From TrEMBL:
Span of domain Serine hydrolase: 20-103
Region of interest (Disordered), ranges: 101-121
Pfam family of the protein (one): FSH1
Organism, as annotated: Octactis speculum
Record's protein name: Serine hydrolase domain-containing protein
Biased segments, Acidic residues type: 112-121
Length: 121
């Protein structure tokens, strides 16, 4: 019998491309996804079975970042006191936390629908 328009359609199955699980990675206070990617390079290199996804927080840094980061690098914060100093500005989560949680949620949903596979952790 002819199945699916071709006699062999019900017999032959092509191997499915195995999708790598994705791991969503969060940078620290007043940093960025690309900076974290650079820092985690050795870990990424030893886990080729995983795809690491580095996202930026939705809020541009409102104050100074780590002095070791060059000033021309864009940095972001998940929450914090607007204009607060680097050492203590992150202590107050009342500014930006809700927006960041929504950003994380939408980032995860977008990657789950991506052909590369769901988020793994």
């Amino acid at each position: 019998p002819v199945v699916g328009g071709h006699p062999a359609a019900g017999i032959i199955s092509l191997p499915r491309r195995r999708r790598r699980p994705k791991v969503l990675c969060f940078h620290g206070y007043r940093a960025s996804g690309p900076l974290l990617r650079l820092s985690l390079g050795p870990f990424v290199a030893v886990a080729p079975e995983l795809e690491f996804v580095f996202i930026d927080a939705p809020l541009r840094s409102s104050g100074p970042h780590d002095p070791r980061i060059p000033p021309e690098i864009d940095t972001y914060e998940w929450w914090g006191t607007p204009g607060g100093d680097y050492a203590t500005g992150w202590l107050d989560a009342s500014h930006g936390l809700g927006e960041s949680l929504a950003h994380i949620s939408s980032s995860g949903q977008g990657h789950e629908e991506d052909e590369g596979g769901p988020l793994a952790g």
